[in-house]
Amino acid sequence: MLTYLCTVIYLENGCMSEIGLINWLSLAWFIGCWVAYTQFAKYKAKTSASLSSVLHVHRINWMRRLLQREVRVGDAALLANLERNVNFFASSCVLILAGLLTALTAVDKVEGMLSGVSFAVVDTLLALELKILTLIGVFIYAFFTFTWSMRQFGFASVLVGAAPLPGDDSVTAAERRSFAIYGAKIIDQASRSYNYGLRSFYFSLAILTWFIHPWAFIAAAALVVGVLYEREFLSNSLEALKKVENVGDKLFKDDKELSRY
Q1: What secondary structure, in 3-state letters, does 37-63 show?
Q2: Residue 202, exposed/middle/buried by CB under 10 A (0-12, 13-18, 19+)?
Q3: 3-state secondary structure of 167
Q4: Is 170 helix (H, G, I), strand (E, B) or coil?
Q5: Residue 249: CB partners within 8 Å, gap ≥ 6?
Q6: What phi, psi does 161 have (nearest 5°)?
Q7: For the segment 185-240, what is each residue's pLDDT rounded down to a tens digit?
Q8: Better-predicted residue by pLDDT, 38 or 5
């Protein structure tokens, strides 16, 4: 037993030294940036306007007005278009994963190509395998989030088909209000999964700089966080969405049921 433990410790220390401490630290920084920003954005959206919180209000308005329409063909087309966008990214993930798995089986050739880049750091094969495996993990996560988003948009399509007609007296006003709130929440959940998948693509671009140098990777991960924050909380698109029907002024004030969480 003691011999086995010593062997494991030796192998682990060998991997640590061969991959390099700076690579492990940069990977930890990358994961920390991703997880920390995800949690930060989730909780900040509860108290301040963001693309997700403002769009949620517009989705509720969409569902309320859908209930006033006899014909819902346009609403179904809008959902189908959203689902088609998600499907494109999910399909892209499969193609990217196929390419990455091919690169993993030919990591020695990848090393040869990178050695021809003058400003790229020379890494061991084990370090290159770690970088490719990290990219594979990111796109597997993205694939699962995109496919879950597709399923939830499918749920929303079922709700559109099941929406009560304007003249249906068997449905109370409270039930119509509940339909608008929770129908919008299903679309919101689908959009949130889609957003998580898009973030995966953003962070995957940061990983590409890891093949150049770990410090470039650290800087790129921080840059991605800055770009995401600017787009979700400070963008011109957000300001325009807030001004539509003065949603920005009503957010978190008029309707407690508008909460996304």
Answers
A1: HHHHHHHHCCCCCCHHHHHHHHHHHHH
A2: middle
A3: coil
A4: coil
A5: 242
A6: -65, -30
A7: 999 999 999 999 999 999 999 999 999 999 999 999 999 999 999 999 999 999 99
A8: 38
Taking the C-alpha atoms of residue 33 and residue 41, their distance in angstroms, rounded to an integer, is 12
- The span from the CA of 153 to the CA of 87, in Å, is 11
Q: What is the pLDDT of residue 14?
A: 52
pTM of the model: 0.87
Tokens read off for 251: 């957010």
> d(Cα 10, Cα 17) in Å, to the nearest integer?
11
With beta carbons less than 8 A apart as the criterion, state whether 139 and 204 touch. yes
Q: Residue 86 has which token pair? A: 């998600």
Q: H helices within the chain, ranges in order? A: 2-19, 21-44, 51-66, 73-105, 107-115, 125-162, 173-208, 214-233, 236-243, 247-250
Helices (H), 163-213: 173-208
172: left (phi > 0), else alpha (psi -120 to 50), else beta?
beta
